[in-house]
Amino acid sequence: MRRVRIVGLAAMALCLVACSGGGNTVAGVGSASPTTVPAAKVSITAAGGDQVNPKTPIVIKATDGTLSAVTVTNPQSGNKVVGDFSADKTTWTSNDTLRFSAVYQVVATAVNKEGKSVEQKGEVHTLTATAVAAPSLFQAPDVANDFGVGLIIGVKFDHDVNDKAAAEKALKVTSTPAQGGSWYWVSKREAHFRPKQYWQAGSTVKLETGVYGQALGDGTYGGPDVSATYKIHDAWVGKADGNTHQLQAFHNGELVRTAPTSMGKTANTPPRGPTPTFNGTHVVLGKTAHIIMDSCTYGICEGQPGYYKAPENWDVQISGDGEFLHENLATVSVQGSQNVSNGCLNLNTDNAKWFFDNFNIGDPIEVTNSGGPQLAINNGHGDWAIDWATWQSGSALHG
């Protein structure tokens, strides 16, 4: 039985009876027939049985009359629920976000054709979830005005999602022009989306979650939805080759600069041993004109062999564990011939400044022949380092 409690306070319609003027009647002329105007009736509907899903709107309907007033209140918060009347004022439908585990008090008034009013009261109980998994954006849209063609978008939940397929069906990505793509579940709480190839330059990409009130398994339901629109700028792609020790820059497919570089060393030299740059496509995460690079951030601190703390300029970050394109004057003599860095791509001043000025968040840097392992998906935005077949297998719907 639906748990919608209703108390009726109905006004009785009056029956009007015409009386004759005397005891006699004229053939063919009788007393007037009684006329009854039905009382207006109010019903409160919200599908869902004993506990209504909060994504289901509350609907108030009047029959034999029209609605003159509707108030729906959450007494726990004191907030009133926003809704709209139909054009003929026979229906009121909520268009607000309802809460989980709430009792909404409804007071509705309707009038019949004779102007007689009836008031109806009731309660709507929303379901209680074991947990509410609220989504947030993997890539915030406000960190840049626009993004590179290597943009990775996605959703993070603050609780485990056990029914990934249900969640994925509720997630919606649209792009203009249309480019398709697939989801990949990094964990029970995080899913990323990308197309097979880079986004087209000039595209617009929109992400909408649509999970609110969606059952996500084991009593967990989706929390309030989020959405974002991303603008894709010109195609800027860097290609770094560990064999040639060159970093090339392509703008909309055209080679516009070649810079000698020194990547991470592969030799087992003390004190750290090999520190090769990760292979695979990196994505620019951010940039800082001047930074202090401190080896203590990865465990080699002051007093230990190999410790350094050095100011570096024109720093473009390309991985989560501290790989950058940046100026390094100490390695200029071997840039273009040897890989001697701690994992970064070292450049001279002019080249570092040029890449800093032209490369921005979402622009891909493809690293090959570095001698290092593949960049992991959780090390910045290592998603493009995963081949397309493997990426598709990470979808709950296509895997």
TrEMBL record:
A GO CC term assigned to this protein in UniProt: extracellular region
PROSITE patterns in the record: LD_TPASE (PS52029)
Residues covered by the L,D-TPase catalytic domain: 236-368
A Pfam short name: Big_10
Annotated catalytic residues: H326 (proton donor/acceptor), C344 (nucleophile)
Pathway assigned in UniProt: Cell wall biogenesis; peptidoglycan biosynthesis
Domain of life: Bacteria
UniProt KW keywords: Acyltransferase, Cell shape, Cell wall biogenesis/degradation, Peptidoglycan synthesis, Signal, Transferase
Signal peptide: 1-20
Molecular function as annotated in GO: acyltransferase activity; peptidoglycan L,D-transpeptidase activity
Gene3D superfamilies: 2.60.40.3710, 2.60.40.3780, L,D-transpeptidase catalytic domain-like
Any Gene Ontology biological process: regulation of cell shape
UniProt xrefs under PANTHER family: L,D-TRANSPEPTIDASE (PTHR30582), L,D-TRANSPEPTIDASE YCIB-RELATED (PTHR30582:SF2)
Full protein name: L,D-TPase catalytic domain-containing protein
The organism of origin for this protein: Kutzneria albida DSM 43870
